[in-house]
Amino acid sequence: MYGPGSIRYEQGVQSLLGTPTAAGYVVYKNNGDGTITIYPVPSHFQDHRWQEEDYSREESQRIMNSGEVVPLYDGNEEAVRLVESYIGATPPGIDEDDEESEEAVTRENVIDKVEEYEGHQLDTSRYTFKEPERRDDGGWGFSILDKQGNLVGSYIIDSDGDVTNYDEHGDAV
Predict the structure, then answer these.
(1) What is the tens place of the pLDDT at every residue in 58-85?
(2) C-alpha closest to that of 101 among 48, 163, 57
(3) For the chain, what is the HEC assignment?
(4) CA distance to 117, 140, 159, per residue, from 106 (Å)
(5) Phi-psi region for residue 49, left (φ > 0), alpha (ψ -120 to 50) or beta?
(6) Strand partners, 172
(7) How far apart (Å, rounded) are the C-alpha atoms in residues 64 and 59?
(8) What are the angstrom distances between the C-alpha of 58 and each of 3, 12, 37?
(9) Cross-strand pairs, 165
(10) Which of 6, 14, 94, 112 has CA 20 to 30 A from 71's CA?
(11) Residue 56 in contact with residue 1, Cβ under 8 Å?
């Protein structure tokens, strides 16, 4: 605790401390049975007697003997799940297993969207993929050429990330 004769906390005792701008101090131990013991440890040891070994030992023992057992509240699991749905990484109503990404389509990720759609990386050894261009509707598009420069197809990625593949005639594949 404080003085030279103070007893030591028993194993498992924890302290919750405030910050310099938010005072507070709680010393407790989890009893492992749904209860905790809270010890009335002062946040300041202003009494000069704490410097005396006998006083320090007796007072610290008194504090440790004065712990109050408090039951932990077993919360409403349904309410906890509701709160979790609002603070989780996935907004309520969105299926976490949904394959479609809610990420905005950008020049930096448009190729990734097509590779995700195709299920593999685009073959740059056989084809040349033109630089993606922003469309008037907010989507992106780019064409695919063979190594001789002939058009072999294109991709349109709408603003929601939906990919459509077109052949060299402009027909959806």
Answers:
(1) 988 998 899 999 888 776 777 777 777 7
(2) 163
(3) CCCCCCCCCCCCEEEEEEECCEEEEEEEEECCCCEEEEECCCCCCCCHHHHCHHHHHHHHHHHHHCCEEEECCCCCHHHHHHHHHHHCCCCCCCCCCCCCCCCCCCCCCHHHHHHHHHCCCCCCCCEEECCCEECCCCCEEEEEEECCCCEEEEEEECCCCCEEEEECCCCEC
(4) 16, 8, 9
(5) alpha
(6) 166
(7) 9
(8) 11, 21, 20
(9) 155
(10) 6
(11) yes
**Amino acid, single-letter form, for residue 51:** Q
Total-model pTM: 0.42
Summarize pLDDT for 119-144 with one digit per residue, the tens. 888 888 899 999 999 998 889 999 99
Enumerate residues 6+ apart whose C-beta is below 8 A from 10.
29, 64
Token code pair at residue 36: 């905790």
- Give the pair of three-digit tokens for residue 163: 């990919």
- Both tokens assigned to 118: 């195709």
For residue 46, the one-letter residue type is Q
